[in-house]
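Sample 3 of the quickstart, ligand NDP:
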Amino acid sequence: NKQVILRDYVKDSPKESDLVIVSNTVELKVKSGSSTILVKNLYLSCDPYMGILMREPNSSTMALLDAYVPGKPLVGVGVSKVIDSDDPAFAKGDYVSAVVDWEEYTTIKTPIISKIDVNINVPLSYYTGLLGMAGLTAYAGFFEICSPKKGETVFVSAASGAVGHLVGQFAKLMGCYVVGSAGSKQKVDLLVNKLGFDDAFNYKEEPDLDSALKRCFPKGIDIYFENVGGKMLDAVLLNMKKYGRISVCGMISQYHLETRDRVHNLPDIMFKRIRMQGFVCGDFQDRFPKFLEYVLPYIKEGKLNYVEDIVKGLDNGPAALVGLYHGKNFGKQVLEVARE
Ligand code: NDP
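Result:
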């Protein structure tokens, strides 16, 4: 049973060398009376928050989730197949979406597991993203936090990523004007030519983010879907309209800085009566059925483009995860541990 282990708490941005692959033997059976199931992990979700959990815990990070433990495997969301079960709710051969260790086989208790409905007929990997955390995050973060209206202007940062590319398309589907920022020309092309964004720019090549935003939004921004923080947030505040909304989904540019960027334009929140709200997707777990009702027809009708970046093999897990902090991924970063 191969595992991806955290070597020690990380200080700067996570590196591949912070993780190590080990192997041990496990019995591929559950204990009778244990109420557990044994799963074979097929797909693992690579998520930016995992880097936060690799740091020594403090009061901020502990408000998010329990930190990883040096010497123990990473923990994340996976799609897995039931190999053995001591729980009547799950049978051998069922597919589940569950919180699992980063390893080939995991024994789990049931409350944190949901069974995958194979009748929905989408690739199983979608449950690590579109029909999992990224999808619900995009849906709740946009519709519930931003209260969007048709015709409003929407800006999405990290727009070609797992959450961002869905937010942009949800906003287009409801008739908003949508602009995204991303870190390369190829990503900008993807946004405009394949995903239907009205405009996009490469933030790494803009000498002045404020001017870039003024060019894209001459009349200002109604809604900002925040994924990166720092300098981008500062520039956005200058370009928000009165009564604008900012959904703080993430601030990936700030997670691993020793000294975080100063945001200078916070007074604009008051001047412009902006509503800025942070959230985590887990807060909206009860909206999942409503989210499925919303998103499945779009998937069936081919009106939603879902981009996945699938890296194969647990050995490549460290590179896949660390790549998120260097913009290596296009769309949702998934690690394929096994196909079946
Ligand atoms: P992505 O698929 O968007 O991957 C991360 C992307 O962030 C990279 O591809 C890169 O794109 C960009 N990035 C990395 N470093 C920087 C940097 N220093 N400055 C600017 N951009 C950077 O990940 P997700 O879609 O999963 O997550 C997006 C955001 O949403 C993250 O902040 C994450 O923490 C947050 N999140 C929050 C959730 C919640 O419940 N609140 C749930 C899920 C995600 P590029 O090439 O464009 O730079």
